[in-house]
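explain this.
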Amino acid sequence: FMLFRGQNEYHPICKPSLFRGLPDEDRIVIDRIKQIEFSDIISTHPIIQELTNQHFNIDYNAISQHYGFLTNMLDITSNKWTAAFFATTRFRNGKYEPVKENFKDGYGVIYKLKSGLDLSDYLDRIHPVGFQFLKCPSRQHAWGCILQENENFNDLPYFERVEFRHNLQASQWIYEMSYRQRRYFPQDYIAQLADNLRSTETISRKALEECHSFYYKDKPITFLTDICQRKRVYIEEIPSAHLDNNSEKKDWTEWCNFGRQELYSKKTIVYPISYSSGF
């Protein structure tokens, strides 16, 4: 059992997306509402409902991280080649590409879980996402590491850092191994759903109220509605996005034929359903 994180350069301060850049409470509030909207929608998928009934903990916060929402998690992986891919490529013009020797300061970094640790020391903040039927996090062998706003990933006692010198030939080899990124970013209608929700100018009243009760129950509901008004995000009675019925049926057929058996054969650590990190 091992966990990794790959970066194409070393960041002295390494924080989750929610805490990067200048603080913007309005932006955080809107993204939290949309993240809850996303979680509510995918929770209706029959496969997720089955997994929930079988006492799998579905960590919607970690899933949302892998679909581009702002969260208090950093991506980590149980697969060294996934970490190597992200350590030797960069995202530009909508896709990943291998990096050259002169990229940034010429060095990338791989974080590796230290050996000899007691699982109980860090499992309160490290959460599994795949294997599961969702293609993107499953292909990336995805996990998530929770950090607080004032924490730096580099200061955590659980990981050691290994720096390496970039080499174009090696970067290209790893890129080709990933089938030119298709291994880690397969066609996924859930990803399109997440993109639609992040770009939409509407949110549902249910998601707004859930966000209020979970994050801001000490504030009046008008705290959220005023932010929506400032950001020109409109509140509707039903979500503006939904699961694609045809894709959902296809998922269920694949799940019944071989997906269920594959998932159960690969599971390692399964948290009880009572454990939850929230949204």
In short: The first helix runs from residue 25 to 42. The beta strands are 4-7, 73-77, 89-92, 95-98, 107-113, 126-128, 142-146, 159-165, 202-204, 234-236. The mean pLDDT is 88.
